[in-house]
Amino acid sequence: MKLKSLMAIPVAAMLAASPVRAEGILPLFDTHVHFSKDAWSSFEPAQILDMLKKAGVVMGAFSSTPDDGTLKLYELNPTMVAPMLRPYRDDINSSNWFADQETVAYLKQRLAKGIYVGVGEFHLFDARSALTPQVKELADEVVKRDLYLQIHAGAFPIAAMYTVNPKLKIIWAHMGMSDGPKTVDTMLEKYPSLMAEVALRGGDIALGGQLDPEWRRVILKYPDRFLMGTDTWVTSRWPEYIDLVEEHRNWIKQLPPEVAEKVAFRNAVRIFGINKRGRFPD
After folding, report:
1. Which helix (H) or strand (E) segment is 54 a member of?
2. Does residue 1 lie within any of the structural domains?
3. Mean pLDDT throughout 250-269?
4. How far apart are CA 147 and CA 179, in angstroms?
5. CATH number for position 206
6. Residues in Cβ contact with 159 at an 8 Å cutoff, skipping those fewer than 6 apart
7. Nearest to 159 by CA among 182, 118, 119, 189
8. Global pTM?
9. Which tens digit of pLDDT belongs to each residue from 199-233?
10. Do residues 265 and 29 lie in contact, with contact meaning Cβ atoms separated by under 8 Å?
11. How many domains does the chain have?
12. What distance in Å separates the CA atoms of residue 90 and residue 166, rounded to the nearest whole number?
């Protein structure tokens, strides 16, 4: 498979020219999307990207099990896909990737393609899982390459990762799934390179569609640290994709316009260095 380099794509002002911007709909950058093997028999890559377009999602950060799902999408339309590299493949999954002897070699081989904006999403179920030699080597590698890690974990494993390498840049998937605004506030204050990603948390942030005052306070305190995401972790999420996006767009629009744009897409554009690749306007 011949892959185009992100740096070589001359796509100027993509967002400014997008139909959603022209129609006055808040465009989005979905930072948590999967096109894993189970979905391949139900959806063609073109159908997946068409769903993003219909939902007003200008770009998605995709990771897949195996990685070939992400590469299918990237090859079809590299201007819509920011590839994330997941360690999962074959029998290597959320329960054993962090102890597998071949994991880091596999990731280094794939990272050599030069197309990935980060490593993840992967799971750490407890702090001990973050302290293996494999995770240490991975942490050092992504710091060297200046890449983000996207981690599905509670607050304790995230804190453990920063003891492994304090220079890490982490996207906290789902903000820990159940952690409340006070914990998220504490974590963002303690770790300046931590980003809070909101996939699967729309119902907590805006119960009944109304933005919760405590979540609003934390988002306004850290407007540069929140990322929109949906998480198509199972195939059944794809038929619901437009509704999943709208759930987030609804509460994001309740923020001040400048903050809403940051959460919707500008924060993702900034951290992934998309502007450096000529895709988005300032």
Report:
1. helix 45-54
2. no
3. 97
4. 25
5. 3.20.20.140
6. 127, 187, 190, 191
7. 189
8. 0.91
9. 999 999 999 999 999 999 999 999 999 999 999 99
10. yes
11. 1
12. 31
